[in-house]
Records
---
Amino acid sequence: MKIAIASGKGGTGKTLVSTNLFNVISRQGQKVRLIDCDAEEPNVCEFIRGNVEEETLTMTHIPVIDSHKCTFCGNCQEYCSYNAIIMLPTIKTIRVIEDLCHDCGACVYACQYDAITEKEKVTGSITQYSISANADVLESQTEIGIYSPVPIIGQTINMAEADTLTFLDSPPGTSCPFIATVERADYVVLVTEPTPFGLNDLKLSVETLRKLKKEFGVVINRYGIGKELIEDYLNKEEIAVLGHIPFDKRIAETYAKGDLITDKYLQYSELFKKLHQNITKQLQR
Amino acid sequence: MTEIAILSGKGGTGKSGISAALATLAPKVVVADCDVDAANLHLILEPRNYLEKVYTSGQKAHIAVEKCTSCGKCMDYCRFDAIKLANGEYSVVETACDGCKLCARVCPTGAITMIDQNESRWFAGAIRNGKMVHARLAPGEDNSGKLVNLVRDHARKEAHDIQSDLILIDGPPGIGCPVISTLSSINKVLLVTEPTVSGMHDLKRITELVSQYKLEVFLVINKCDINPEMTEEIEKWAVGKQIPVISKIPFSQVWVEAMINCKSIVDWAPESELSDQIRAIWKKLIDNE
Ligand code: SF4
Ligand code: SF4
Ligand code: SF4
Ligand code: SF4
C-alpha cells in the first residue's frame, strides 16, 4: 500500500505531515517505510535520523560519438528532440551536451555508421536508512545538473514492497516529478493551508489528481483564521477532510529545529494517530 | 534599468508575500512572476490582462489504433516506459511520455504522430502602478525554464514600452534551470530565507549558485523569531559571505491576515511595524546604487 503526501507548493507542511505520520506509526510497532521522492531537495532526513543500510547509485546512458567513424551526415542531430548534439563539420567536431541529453536513444538509432556508443553516467543515489526494527526511510537524490528527477523517482518507488505500508513524500508542484510520484500511489493526501494562495495551489492539485483518477483527501495545515474559504471549496467539491493541524507557533519552532511535534507534544501525537485512522478508513471505503 | 529577482530556494519562506509588498511600493514597475509552476502573485496584484498567449511546452506521442499492426517496435525502443499494451492494444501513457519522438520514427506503419502540448498560457496585464507578466503551466507539463525566459523577456519589453526602469521578478523555486535562466541578466537579488534546518540548507545552495554571477545580493530572514539561535547562525554565515542582512521579519499574525485577504501587507496594514520594515527593505534595495 502506497500513500503519497503532496502539496501544490513547497512550504505548506508536506514533510511535517509525512514525517510525523511515519513517526507515530513506527512507534506503534507497525511495519512502515517512508520514501523521500523530492529528489531535487530531499529533506526527510533532517527530521528522521537513522543508520545508512545501503546506498545504490542510479545510472543513465550518455551517448559518446566517435569523430573518426562519424561522417557528419547530421542524422543524429536531426533525431535529437532536445538539441543535445552540436556538430561543426568544418572543424570535424561533434559532441553531446550531457546536461541536455534525456537518454532517449534516438541518436544511436539514427546513426548508420556505428559512430555512437553509450557510456554510463551517475544521475543520483538511493539511500536506505534503518530507523527501527520495523521502520526505514529511502531517500532519492539527484546529482546537481541532471535534467529531470523523474527516472530516479520511479526507480526509488519501485523499491516499495507491496505488503508494507509506504508513504511517499512527493515533490512540490504539479509538473512531472509530482505526477511521477502520485501516479504510483494508491491514495494521495494533499496538504494545504487556508489562504487564497493555498486554495489556488490546491485547486491545481485537485484538477491534476482528478485527471489521473486518483483517490485523495486533504489535510488543512495552519488551521485557524481564513478557514471558511477553503472549507467552502472542499464542501462544494465533496473532498474528504482527513485532519486539521492548528496554527500554532510551537509547530514552526519545533520544525525549525529539525524535531518532530509528535515526539514533543502528546496533543500532536494523538492528532497524527487520528489522522492515520482517518486515512485507513478512506482506504477501506 | 534595474532588474531585481526575489529568490528563496525552497517554497514557504514568504517570498511571494514579500514580492507582492515590494511590488505595491514601487512608483512604477513591471512585475514578472517567474514562479510559473505555482504562480500566485496575480491573486494579490490583480492584473487586468490584455494579452493571453499559448505556450507550447513540448510534444507527446499518440498512436492511431486503426493504423497499428501491433508489431511492438515502439515499445521496444521507448526508454521511458511510456508505451503500454492492454487488451492487445498499444497506447501511449501520456504522463510518462518524454516527447523524444523515437517511437514515431521506428513505427513501420506511420501510426504514431506527435501532438503539441499547448494547454499552458502566459499573460500580460495592467496593475495599479505598472504592468505584470505571469503564466500558468498546465499540470504535468514541463520545460518551465523556457516559459520563465518568455515571461522575463516580455517583462523587459513592457518595461521599455512604459519607460519603467524597474523590473521585479518573483523567482522560481529550487536551484535548477528556471532559476539559472532568471539570474542570467539581472542586477540584484533579494534572498528570502527562514531560520529552519532546511531553510539554511537551501540558502547555502542558492548562494553558491548566485555567487557565480556578478550581482548585488541582499538577504532577508523571515520568521526570524521561530528559531533565534538559527537566525544568529545565518547572520554570522552572511557576514562571512559578505551578504548584508537587510531585515529580520518576525512571525506575525498580520502577515497571515494580509494573505487571507489577498492584500499586500503595506496596503492591508500600512501603519504596522511590518510595513515599516518592508519600506526599509525597499529603500535599501533601491537606494543602494
Ligand atoms: S540520447 Fe536522445 S537526447 Fe541524448 S543525445 Fe541522443 S538523441 Fe539526443
Ligand atoms: S548520425 Fe552518426 S555519422 Fe551521422 S553525424 Fe551523427 S554520429 Fe556522425
Ligand atoms: S515519444 Fe519517446 S517517450 Fe514518448 S512514447 Fe515515443 S518513444 Fe516513448
Ligand atoms: S510501432 Fe507502430 S505499428 Fe508497431 S506497435 Fe507501435 S504503433 Fe503499432
---
Amino acid sequence: MIPVLELHDLCVTLRQHRRAIELVKGVSFSVHAGECLGVLGESGSGKSMSIKAAMGLLNKSFLVSGSARFQGEELLGKSAEELRRLRGGKVGIVLQNPMTCFDPLYRIGQQISETFLAHNSWSADEIRNRSLALLEKMQIRNPEEVLEKYPHQLSGGMLQRIMIGIATSMEPALLVADEPTTAIDAITQFEILDELIRIKRDANTAMIFISHDLDAISRVADRIVVLNQGQVVDQGDFDHILHHASDPYTKLLVEKRADVMRRYCQVLQGKERNYA
Amino acid sequence: MKRYVIRRLLLAIPLLLAISFVCFVFINIIPSNPAEVALRVQQMPVITEEAIAEMEVMLGLNKPFIVRYFDWVLGCLHGDFGINYVNPARTVAGELARCLPATLQLAAVSFVIVLVLSVPIGFLCAVYKDGWFDKIMRAIIFISTAMPAYWVGLLLMWGISVKLDLLPTNGSGTWQHLILPSFTVALSYISTYIRLIRNNMLENMNQDYVLYANVRGLPQKSIMVKHILKNSMHTCIVAMGMSIPQMIAGTIVVENVFSWPGLGTLCISSIFNRDLPVIQTYVLLIGVLFVVFNLVFDVLQTVSDPRLRKED
Ligand SMILES: Nc1ncnc2c1ncn2[C@@H]1O[C@H](COP(=O)(O)OP(=O)(O)O)[C@@H](O)[C@H]1O
Ligand SMILES: [Mg+2]
C-alpha cells in the first residue's frame, strides 16, 4: 500500500544575505490511510517547516530539496496552481493560532464560503447548507449566528473547531494538525483532541499530529517521530519512545516530562497534606 | 458613537481658538501698519498722518490688540469674518467664497490622481517585491521625495509648457490648466502613499491569516486583493483622509507658482497687503477643515472595522 504522504530526505535551506541556513536537514517519514503519525519536537525543531515545504507554503527564499510524495505523486516541482488545489481539498491543514488565522475583516460565513468556492462550483444555497453542516458536525451551537460573526467575536476554541471543520469538510485524504492545542486552554484542548480522535476513527483519513506536548501526542498518535534541529532522531510507537528510546534527545524529552509529572504529584500531595 | 462625535467637536473649539489666537499674535508682530499698506494699495497719492489715522479708525485698528481679537472672534460666531482691509467694500467671507472653489477643484483632482496612481503602484511594488518594477519605483520615490513641490512645478512648467508647448504655463479655465498644478500637488503624496501601501502590504503578507488563506487553497489573486490589499488599505484610511485638508492647505505654494486663482494665491497677497482678517479667517478655515476631516475619517475607520464597530 502506498503511503498517503511520504517525505524522503527533505531538506529546507534558507538563503539570506548570501548565507545559506539549513533549517530542515533530511527528514524522512510516511503516514498511511487511517493512521495518525505524531511529530514530536520542541519549538524551532523544524516540524512546521517540513510540512510547509511539502505543501508549497514557503516563498522563494527557501530552497526545498529531496522528495515529498502525496498518494505516490511527487509534490516538489508541482505548479503553484496544482498545489493550491491540493491544499484545502485533498489535504486539510489546521494551524496553531486560531485567533489570528482568520481575516479580521470578513465574517466566518464568508471565509468558509470562499474556501468552498476555491475548490468547487457550488450554488449559494449548497454553500450555506454545507457551512451549517460543517459547524453542526463540530458541535457548535447556533450555527446560523456563528456564520454572521466576525473572528474576534468568537473564542479560540470555537475558531479552532471551525478550522478543523473547514479542513475536514472537503473529505481530505490527509489531515495535518500543526500544534492545534498549543494556543488554547486545557479543557478546550481536551475537546479538540477528542474531535481529532473521532475524525480519525470515522473517516479513514491519514493524520499528522504535530506537537511539542508528549501527553497530547500520546492520546492521538499511533506512531511517533521525534524531530530535533531539523532531523529525525527517533521513531516508533509510544511505548518505544517512552521506554526504549535510543536517542539521548528523546530520552531528555521523556525525562523532562517525567520530572514535571513527579513535581506535579509532589505539589498535589503537599497540598493534600496541608489540607489534612 | 453620537456622544463621541459631540465630544470631539466640543474639544475642537478651544483648539481652534488657540490656533486663531497664535495666528493673530504672529500677524500683529509684523512691523508695518496695515492702515498705511491699505492706503498704498488703494493708490492714495499722498499718504498723510490724518489719512492713516482715519483709516485706522475705519478698520478698528485704533483699539487695543485684545479687544480687536475678541471683536473678531465674536464676529465669527455671527458668521461675520470682517471686511477686506484693502478693499473695504468686500467682505472676507465673500473673498474666501470666491477663491474656495478653485482650490477645492485643484485639491480634488490631486487627490484622485494620488489614489489612482499610488494604490495600484504600491500594490504592484509589494506583489513583485525586489523585482524590476519595485526597484524602478523605489528609485523614483527616492528622487521625488527629495524635490520640493515648487521646484518640481517650475521644472514641469519649463519642460512641458515652455519647451514642448503641450500645456498652458499658468492661469485657469480649461482642464489643460489643471494638469500641471494638480500633478505637482499630488507628487509628494503619491510617493508617500506608494511607500505606505507597499510596506503595509508586505507587513500583512507575514500575518497568520495569509498563511491560513494559502492553507485553505484560496487563489493568489483573491488573497492579494480581497485580503491583503483590503487589510492594508484599512490602516491607511485615516492617513489618506487627512491628506485632503493637507492638500487644500498645501496648495499655497503651487497655486502661486502656477498663478492658480485659489485660496493660496489670496492668502499670499493678503500677507503682502497685511490684510489681517483674511489671513485670520484663512487659518481658521484650514483649522476647521483639519478637525472635521480628522473626525470624519476616524468615524469612517471605526465603522468599517468590525473589531471597533459595536454590533447590536
Ligand atoms: N520565515 C522564517 N524565516 C527564517 N527562519 C525561519 C522562518 N520560519 C521558521 N524559521 C526557522 O526555522 C526553524 C524551524 O521552524 P519551525 O518549523 O517553525 O519550528 P517548529 O518545530 O516549532 O514548528 C526555526 O529555527 C526557525 O527559527
Ligand atoms: Mg510550528
